[in-house]
Amino acid sequence: CTDASLAEFGDLLARSHGMCDAIILLLDPTPRPDDWPTAATSRILGGVTVPVQLDRDGEIANALGAETSGHVVLVDPKGAIRFQGGLTLARGHQGRAPGQDAILALLAGHPSTRTREPVFGCPLTAECKLEPAR
Questions:
Q1: What is the DSSP string of 63-87?
Q2: Which of 9, 36, 43, 80 lies 20 to 30 Å from 72 when distance is taken between CA atoms?
Q3: Are strands 43-45 and 48-50 parallel, antiparallel or unpaired?
Q4: Are 75 and 61 spatial neighbours (Cβ–Cβ below 8 Å)?
Q5: Per the omega criterion (within 30 degrees of 0), is the bond before 77 cis?
C-alpha cells in the first residue's frame, strides 16, 4: 500500500508545481516493533524533498481524522481542512484518482465538489497484510 500511496503523492507534488508544502507523518507506535523504522528521514517525491515527521502513537493523524495509511489532508493557510482522503483508486494500485484532481483544483483556486475520497490502505491501529491478487 505504501509504495502506491507514495508514488501517487509524488505525482501530485510534481503536478502541483510547488503550490503547496508537504509533510509525511510516520506512525511511531508504543511499543515499537523490532523492525519498525526509528528515523524520520526526508523522502524525495515528485522531485520535491518532503520532510518526514514521527507521529508518536498516531496522535497527529488521529487529530486530523486519519485512520488509514495513505490518508492525505489538505489544509489551507488559515488552518481549515479543505480535502481529506486517498490518492489511489484501490489498495496497492497506482493510477490517477479523483483525490489528486480535487486537490489540484483546490490549489489552483477552483471549487471542488470532492472534499473527501475513500482511502485504500492499512488501518493505522492494526497490523496490515496485503492479500495476494486473485
A1: HTT--BTT-EEEE-TTS-EEEEE-S
A2: 36
A3: antiparallel
A4: no
A5: no
